[in-house]
Amino acid sequence: MDLIAFAAVTGVVVLGSLVQVTTGVGGGFVMVPLLAMIDLALVPAPLIFASICLSVIMAVRERAAIDWVHIPLVLVGMLPGAVMGAFLISQIPLEQLGIVFGCVILLGVLITAIGRTLPLTRYSAIAAGTLSGIMGASSGIGAPLLALLYQNETGARLRGTLAILYTTASVLILLVLAGFNRFWTEEIIAGTYLIPGFILGYLIASRLTARLNDRFTRIAVLLVSASAAAALIWRSLPDDLLT
């Protein structure tokens, strides 16, 4: 990766990290479409690998507010979901993955924008875990469904619980992706280039959190994400469909 590309991906990851730290969800909306437009090889495995450092930091910071009751149920559903998601991308040519990523992002944006309340029960936790596993393994974005489970909780509980779920789910998804030859040496090297952006984004966000308006940030993230996803889908369409 040359210096210009490194600066570009770092900027994208810093922006996504700012969103993730301040709201607890939404970082993937920003990072996945923009990173995929720079280089499809950066998603999903390298991004998931690099994001673990941020998830661990956030989980430790909000550890007192974590909801440990439903986490095992979410993970029970996430394993088969991750296998299905990994199988999906293993069957799709690299040049067409942009369409998959874009569609998953638009679905996540729609789910988040609707903001319907999802009751937190053992069944909803398993179902959300399964669908989140599919979306996470196939695109790197599995947060929207999990966020629906905790959207009525306090900010600390939301951020802490999602952070520990992201950490555990990321390890699980990477193991599944490795089984489908979608995570190994090349993806680890690519993910290493993204780690400085996550750390820098966290340090900046820690100083800005109190100054940001959550509603404005949420709307801006959804608009940017939807636009980037649409552009990614357009760019990934076969040339014969565009002529």
Q: Supply the number of structural domains.
A: 1
Q: What percentage of residues falls in helices of 4 or more residues?
A: over 70%
- Report the portion of residues in β strands: under 5%
Order of helices and strands: HHHHHHHHHHHH
Arithmetic mean of pLDDT = 85
C-alpha Rg, in Å?
A: 17 Å
In DSSP terms (H or I, runs of 4 or more residues), the helix count works out at 12
User: Distance between the terminal alpha carbons, to the nearest Å?
Assistant: 33 Å
The 3D shape can be described as globular
Oligomer: single chain
User: What is the strand tally?
Assistant: 0
Concise synopsis of the structure shown:
With 243 residues, this protein is mainly α. Helix content is 77%, strand content 0%. The protein has one domain.
Which terms would index this structure?
243 residues
Could you characterize the architecture of this molecule?
This protein has 243 residues and is mostly helical. Helix content is 77%, strand content 0%. The longest helix is centred in the last third of the chain and has 25 residues, at 155-179. The chain is globular.
Write the layout of secondary structure elements.
Elements: H1 3-23, H2 27-38, H3 45-61, H4 71-90, H5 97-114, H6 122-139, H7 143-150, H8 155-179, H9 185-192, H10 195-208, H11 214-236, H12 239-242
Helix pairs in contact: 1-2, 1-10, 2-5, 2-11, 3-8, 3-9, 3-10, 4-6, 4-8, 5-7, 5-11, 6-7, 7-8
